[in-house]
Specification:
Number of domains: 2
Number of strands: 15
CATH superfamily of the largest domain: Type I PLP-dependent aspartate aminotransferase-like (Major domain)
Bound molecules: pyridoxal-5'-phosphate
CATH class of the largest domain: Alpha Beta
Order of helices and strands: HEEEHHHEHEHHEHEHEEEHHEEHEEEH
């Protein structure tokens, strides 16, 4: 038996059973490429779940990590450390938000956002505590974020869920209006639903939500964990919708693979007092140095503009495939957050065929796949991915259309 199989068998015995893995053990990455322990190379259009914004092992990130690892890795947050301050400054200078709390994941960033909104509700909204979120959303895996996430499959195994969340239809302003009452302290949305299907709302949806929040005096919270840090073609997706969130959360691409999350807030709702919220590792010097290097590179080299251009090119190429193969029903997304939908449940087959041909993609739903490559991919790499897809659709198309 190969060593690879031994590792995989051991993993299946050791880990709690939370995910079905492909029989591939990854060992090394560079740029948009990743290699398994058999030496097989893959073009990575999953990017560690939309995380590796600078691709794998980018020199800017690796250098920052090396330098900081030699200097200071962790300190308790009762002391000041410079990497966190520099990162917070860069975020604030490049967004509409004023203050930052650092944590370790997107889920935790959203927990922070919800706690901040509840505290705001206690102070300014007569104790209002409810947050309205939408069906098809994804906000994370803690019990509270499972309640926030409007998808039954994540909720049902864990009922009863914490209260204080109301799920309504996405892209439906009337549904939000109807659900708002004296208990509501905020509305939390993804600008584009990522895990829920890469669902792009109407152009004016977010503006209407922002107006409604202002009218009611409640907080407008955007979960930009997936859409933020250049993914959709601007540094933050809200910029494309002419809105400004009161609270925004980030994670994924912020550290390009180093685990970091952030809850950002405007001054008027920065209502935490010392001791009310915290995280042992949150904002530690190592991850903040890595995230600073990532974000600085993304801003200085105008990666969002490249994402915008390349995303349009990729969409056009995928549209061409859609014209060619009638089982493709839709291509949708923004920047490098793109989904392709089929009229039948072939996503698993497509994903495995891509894997065999050296392309990593993500099965989003039984009938849809998603592309979230590193933001540094090139036009040639897009062409390579599209060619692999075209070959698979040509070879398998006859079987699927039988
Ligand atoms: N919010 C959004 C929009 C996400 O896409 C995700 C993860 O996919 C999360 C929150 C949860 O982030 P994490 O897995 O880092 O906790």
């Amino acid at each position: 038996m190969s060593q690879s199989n031994d590792w995989q068998k051991l993993a299946d015995k050791l880990f709690l059973n939370t995910v079905t893995r492909f029989p591939v053990t990854l060992v090394r990455g560079e740029g948009a490429r990743i290699w398994d322990d058999q030496g097989k190379q893959y073009l990575d259009f999953v990017g560690g779940w939309a995380v590796n914004s600078l691709g794998h092992c980018h020199p800017a990130l690796v250098n920052a990590l090396e330098e900081q690892a030699k200097t200071l890795i962790q300190a308790s947050n009762q002391f000041y450390t410079v990497p966190a301050i520099k990162l917070a400054q860069l975020l604030v200078e490049n967004s509409c938000l004023d203050r930052v709390f650092f944590c370790n994941s997107g889920t935790e960033a959203n927990e922070g956002a919800v706690k901040l909104a509840r505290k705001y509700g206690k102070i300014h909204l007569k104790g209002a505590y409810e947050i309205i979120t939408t069906y098809g959303s994804f906000h994370g895996r803690t019990l509270a974020m499972t309640a926030a996430t409007g998808q039954r499959k994540f909720q049902d195994p864990y009922t009863p869920l914490p209260g204080g969340f109301v799920n309504v239809k996405y892209n439906d302003i009337e549904a939000l209006r109807r659900a708002t009452n004296e208990r509501t302290c905020g509305i939390m949305l993804e600008p584009i639903q990522g895990e829920g299907g890469v669902n792009v709302p109407d152009d004016d949806y977010l503006k209407k939500v922002e107006d409604w929040c202002h009218q009611k005096g409640i907080l407008f919270i955007l979960d930009e964990v997936q859409t933020g840090i250049g993914r959709t073609g601007t540094l933050f997706a809200y910029e494309q919708y002419n809105v400004e969130p009161d609270i925004m959360t980030l994670a994924k691409g912020l550290g390009s693979g180093v685990p970091i999350g952030a809850s950002l807030a405007k001054e008027h709702c920065s209502v935490f007092s010392p001791g009310e919220h915290g995280a042992t590792f949150g904002g530690n010097p190592l991850v903040c140095a890595a995230a600073y290097a990532t974000l600085k590179y993304i801003i200085d080299t105008d990666i969002p503009e490249k994402v915008n251009r390349l995303g349009k090119y990729f969409m056009t190429e995928l549209e061409t495939l859609k014209q060619q193969f009638d089982f493709i029903t839709e291509v949708r997304g923004k920047g490098l957050l793109i989904a392709m939908e089929f009229d039948r449940e072939i996503a698993q087959d497509v994903t495995i065929s891509c894997l065999n041909k050296g392309l990593l993609i993500n099965k989003l739903k039984p009938n849809a796949i998603r592309f979230v490559p590193p933001l540094i991919i090139t036009e040639r790499e897009v062409d390579e991915a599209v060619n692999i897809l075209r070959n698979i659709f040509t070879e398998k198309g006859r079987e699927w259309t039988k």
